[in-house]
Amino acid sequence: MKKLGIMFLAMAVMGMLSGAAFAGDTLADVKAKGVLVAGVKDSLPPFGYVDETTRQIVGYDIDFVKAIADKLGVKLELKAVTSASRMPQLTEGNIDIIAATMTKTPERAQQIDFSYTYFATGQKFLVKKGTVKALSDLEGKKIGTAKGSTSEQNVAKALPSATILSFDDYPQAFLALQQGKVFAVTTDESLLAGMLAKAPNKEEFEIPDIQISDEPYGLGMRKGDKAFVDFVNTTLLEMEKSGKAKEIFEKWFGPQSSTPIKRNFTITADN
User: Model confidence over 117-169: pLDDT tens digits?
Assistant: First the structure.
């Protein structure tokens, strides 16, 4: 029994060591295999969704990882992830980078490393028109959001009397709102605007000007993967300087887009 315990301990140590070595070599590994594997959302416009014409995943997040892959001189492979699965997929080595509307938090930063902020928004609510004028109107109500998201945590703190119903993704939560199963859906304003823009009955809903948090998005990489993090950060700064980052924003959120919002941030080394 003692020998068995020692064997399992040795295997665990070897696993940790191999994982640490793998994490530190992502940049070299990606170059060697010629492919960057990115975990992205596939049902959350305009960040990541399946284009009805091409059947390809497109969006704001995809354009950013495409730029990183191009800078590396490798192909881009996309894998669909959810809010709950994205970090496990990264730490288990199934993807190289997370580009999936991921808010940077101190808790998450203990498990993975983040890039500089490449998008910034705030958490709000999507409701039926005329039903919400103040945060107090949401007290004691059923509110839908996504499992494993910061939105789930934030709304529980902001509205302790509310009943939080967590779905696998935000489109499911929005469907519950349309069916009258929840009173509101909460997540980042940019995501709510994207869902609303695609809704056939969008005139029935609105996003009140009630914000409960700031949400800075970062690209997620394995902990301690310094060379890769540095490369990604350098690329992001170059994209900001060249105007490429703003160009991507205007494409998905500019005045001519289906989800027009103002760009109230720039990519800097301080965020």
Answer: 999 999 999 999 999 999 999 999 999 999 999 999 999 999 999 999 999 99
User: In which residue are the tokens 């969008």 written?
Assistant: 202
Structure tokens at 95: 């993807």
The string of pLDDT tens digits covering residues 17-32 is 434 434 468 999 999 9
Q: Which domains are seen in the chain, by residue range?
A: 26-118+218-253 (3.40.190.10), 122-215 (3.40.190.10)
Query: Which DSSP string corresponds to 141-152?
Result: -EEEEETT-HHH
Q: What is the pTM of this model?
A: 0.81
Helices (runs of H) and strands (runs of E) counted in the chain: 10, 14
Q: What is the dihedral of CA 99, 100, 106, 109, to 10 degrees?
A: -40
Cα(131)–Cα(206) distance, integer angstroms: 9
